[in-house]
Amino acid sequence: MAEQLPILMLLSPFLFAFTVSLTGLVNSRWCYPLTLVAVTLSLFASAGLLGQVLEHPDHRVHYHLGGWPPPFGIAYVIDPLNAVVLVLVAVVALITAVYSKDHVPRDTPGKEPQFYTLYLLLLTGLLGMTVTGDAFNLYVFLEISSLTSYALIAIGPPRAALSTFNYIIMGTIGASFILLGIGYLYLKTGSLNMADMHRIIGGFGPEGSKTIRIGFILIMIGVWIKMALFPLHRWLPNAYTFAPTSSGCLIAPLMTKVSVYVMIRFMFTVFYPEVIFASPENGDIVLWLAVIGILVGSFYALAKIKLKKMLAYLILAEVGYMVGGAWQGNETGLTGAVFHLLSDGLMTLCLFLVAGIFLHKRQSPNISAMRGAFSRMPFTMAGFTVAALSMIGVPPTCGFFSKWYLISGGIEAGRWSFVVALLISSLVNAILFFKIIEQAFFDRPFETDNHRETTIDEAPPSMLFPLLITAALILLLGIFSSKVVAFISIFITSTGGS
Amino acid sequence: MLEFIIAYFNYWIYIVLMMIGLYAMISKRNMIKKLIGMSIFQTAIMLFYVSIGVKKDATIPILEHGHGEAASHGTELAEQVTHAATATVNAADYANPLPHVLMLTAIVVGVATLGVALAVVQKVHGYYGTIEENEIQERVRL
Hints:
heterodimer, A: mainly alpha, 20 helices, B: mainly alpha, 6 helices
């Protein structure tokens, strides 16, 4: 049982997806509890895997699909890096699943079975991308997650369908580039297993081969399109803004983060950091893209009046943080990037949950809907404040620690442009969020019914509890950051990231 | 130069096809034309994969007298089968089947993407009444 956990983790959402779509034909009320069961099983399996990785002497768990040994069969490899990403994916999926109870019937009436089927398939795709140790298998799971996320966004209002079309075009170009890159690597190495590829690429020496370098560049361009790194970001803000609330809460924190994970996996597990960072110009180009991405995302966010659109532009800035951290070429920067991957997943989730609550309670997507919210919805605003402080980088929250590692990595590498961009972006975040918090605290409430100004009008518990748990997780991740970083650094030292 | 082009004929075609697809996806205003470009783009990559499996003077990757025939031909052939299985197989005589198998998956993915995209276009058309992007842009701004 315990050695079958990697496949059970994938199969539980996958098989329940069919169960949900079949029971949906009979009675759509069963879809929600069945989804909860599937995601909870998946979370238990991923937590069990994390425990196995912790206990294992090499901190590495191998699973051979169908008993075929690699490089011929597909292998799932779990090391400290993807163990934590798996838990993050499962936690975010469970929180969003609980949260979706009132949103799904309201946003997509009559389509609950379809919504939850796609939801579970998207979870399968994301977990599969994270767990797999086979390059082509990764492409297949990437396409599963992309296709389901297109459908989950397009299920919303007509404006969402329009932005989904751009997402499909860009996403397909990105996935095709990844496929082409894997083809080039296969051409030269004759293998699709990541560990095997790593071994064979090492045989070409520090000079490397031109084919492999082209393959690497193609894969990187593909994942940058998928994670919306500047200047390949145009599809993201509209797609995330107009998505139905529950879809947005699942897709916005996870799709970009898992793409960042894929980038780190290809850079450090398939390729050799010594080769990538052999000439400093390689890192310089990517770092400038990240810097421009951070600044563009932050300043565009300042100008937005829709809450979700503002958050979508902040995601662009956060992607810049992680790419910049990973491409600094030192261990501190990479630690920052991986830790930021976790903390940003939780922060983005928390902010999107709040945006969904305000859309539900006040029927308005604008930031002005939050005026005077502290007196009416104190718990919701408490959750929002925790996430906002974390985005700014205030000490007890996890956002502070990830920024700390990113900035000290930048100083270590002497990349001052990146350090300055991070500080400017933190300042912009402070302006953005304190403006909202001030309005929510001092201004008159949104509604005109002044006679019951002091009554508390909170969100329903199915929305409030997920939000409070997410806020608590942000604080816990910050408080226990040293333990998490110690665990991640097992991966980082094993790559020999110089 | 001409020899260089002829020697890598498949690869030139794949690059040209890919650029045609990319051009259509970027510059065309009609959504269906964009999707046609997307399909050309994906097909170009399939051509690349199929090309890398090819070897000179190689045959289809099926072992003659491999297992599976024994059941219908009786025990005489069974000996031959065991003989064929134990005989050394020269990999250079057979085309590489793996890239072709991978492309079966990629074809399925391509069909699924096209299906989702067409459904989305239908939804856009149902609401905006057009599939020309510049006309939709004008309506969104209003």
